[in-house]
Design brief:
Length: 430
């Protein structure tokens, strides 16, 4: 991909909708949106991949080995894709959960036909043929600058665990904690709606309207769609520097009452429970990065940072390290995936407990979507706050979860799950 064409951008909001409307017709597309958040680690405001030149789909087993061969074969190209939670069976050696329903593979990466970058009010199209890029730009400009029309609907979803069953599992997990099997475990449950017909782009835009977050993503692999409003970075590489930013600690916002909203923020900042959970995952990330980073280079750059988003306040820490140029993407994935914020500690044991107690596979939830650029730099999110739509079987689902410790109260943890589900329900009512 050595042909580029640039255009000025006057209206990001309209352009992003036009890009989505255009890209969603391709069987493979990935739209990554920073939603104008600014941070020292920001890479791109908006990045779109559409069309398929080549791809790799692989179940856990030899997936990372095959992926590295794919990356080597396409060195110097833009590559997009995902790591599903099921990949942990290959990395950590814990037998996978029962097979998921049709949808996202454990691993899928593709070389796109088109790449589009938006930064500093400039759009850059990247591809192999100038005439093809100019034609694509004309197609994009001809797309409507509004969400696709969708009939009013009422989608009814159901949890796969009842309140009593959920609370019973939490108590059993706390027994494991009491026995010293683990310190903390991220336990998740799935909510499902069936016989659903919807427009995936409309759903993603509704989610982004209600909850614009810096690692948002619209992603399509054949008939599986992801609408993601994630605030969390899994792993980023820039040159020899790698960064992970785990989240542990959430407080609901009250933007209509600034005094109460600030009080919520301060409660989170000073919460001993959230700090305990956060420092556990920070230690886990430090240990993971130390497997591949230069000795003594792993540092906690920020501990217990409080960040405010439209729906919630979050406690986020930043861990960074230095790697040798010879360290490959798959080396970093083997050392760090699945991310500690979505497992708990110690990782291997909690993965065994997740397999034993969660009643459905996580699929792409708790996995990661992102890209590698032609220089080998990359940025990947954590797939949370997300809806998965499997158009082929008309199934819509989402997972919610929380970090369970000895101090957790099962009933309150269940209420937190319902609160998180209610945020998704607003999208479904749109």
């Amino acid at each position: 991909m050595d042909v580029t064409i640039s255009y000025a951008v006057a209206d990001y909001a309209t352009l992003k909708i036009q890009l989505l409307n255009w890209a969603s017709r391709f069987n493979s597309c990935c739209f990554l949106d920073n939603h104008l958040y600014h941070s020292p680690w920001q890479q791109q405001e908006c990045l779109l991949a559409a069309g398929l030149v080549d791809s790799i789909t692989a179940p856990a087993g030899r997936a990372l080995h095959d992926l590295q061969a794919f990356l080597d074969r396409h060195a110097g190209r833009w590559i997009f894709g995902h790591l599903g939670f099921g990949l942990q069976a290959e990395i950590e050696g814990v037998d996978n959960q029962p097979a998921a329903t049709p949808g996202f593979a454990d691993l899928f990466f593709f070389v796109p036909r088109y790449v589009i970058k938006c930064n500093d009010h400039e759009l850059v199209l990247i591809g192999d043929d100038e005439a093809e890029l100019r034609s694509a730009w004309q197609e994009i400009c001809g797309q409507p600058g509004h969400a696709p029309a969708e009939a009013a609907r009422q989608i009814t979803y159901r949890p796969l665990l009842s309140r009593d069953a959920y609370c019973g599992v939490i108590r059993q997990l706390q027994d494991h904690i009491r026995r010293g099997d683990c310190y903390e475990i991220n336990f998740c449950q799935e909510f499902v709606a069936e016989e659903v017909v919807l427009h995936p782009v409309h759903t993603y835009l509704r989610l982004s309207q209600l909850s614009p977050n810096p690692f948002s993503c619209f992603y399509r692999q054949e008939q599986a769609y992801l609408a993601c409003a994630s605030p969390e970075r899994y792993l980023m590489r820039s040159g020899t520097r790698v960064i992970s930013q785990p989240i542990k600690g959430t407080a609901a916002r009250d933007p209509g009452n600034m005094a109460r909203d600030d009080a919520q923020r301060q409660l989170l900042r000073n919460s001993a429970k959230d700090q305990r959970e956060n420092v556990m995952v920070v230690d886990l990330v430090r240990n993971d990065l130390s497997k591949v980073c230069r000795q003594g280079s792993v540092r906690v750059e920020e501990l217990f940072g409080i960040y405010t988003y439209p729906q919630v306040h979050q406690m986020i820490s930043t861990v960074a390290g230095e790697v040798d140029p010879s360290v490959r993407f798959t080396d970093l994935v083997r050392a760090t995936f699945p991310m500690g914020s979505m497992t708990g500690a110690p990782k291997r044991r909690v993965l065994e407990l997740i397999k034993a107690y969660e009643v459905s596979p996580r699929g792409l939830f708790s996995g990661s979507v992102g890209y590698l650029d032609p220089s080998g730099n990359f940025d990947f999110n954590v797939v949370i706050r997300s809806l998965v739509y499997q158009a082929e079987i008309r199934r819509l689902s989402f997972h919610v979860g929380s970090g369970i410790t000895w101090y957790s109260q099962p009933e309150m943890e269940y209420e937190e799950c319902l609160w998180k589900a209610a945020a998704i329900e607003k999208v479904l009512q749109g």
